[in-house]
Design a protein that fits this description.
By secondary structure, the chain is mainly alpha-helical. The longest helix is centred in the middle third of the chain and has 40 residues. Keywords: Membrane, Transmembrane, Transmembrane helix.
């Protein structure tokens, strides 16, 4: 494995992790907004 391959692999892993984090955060935000919306409708 060359240095360039290792660097590409590391970059791919970082992109994958960042994508998963963004999806996770957006899921939490959507869930929170849904909860707020439901609470607002109940009021």
């Amino acid at each position: 494995m060359t240095l360039k391959q290792a660097r590409l692999l590391t970059m791919a892993n970082m992109v994958l992790i960042m994508t998963m984090v963004v999806v996770f955060i957006s899921m939490i935000v959507n869930f929170g907004l849904d909860s707020l919306g439901a609470g607002y409708l109940l009021l």
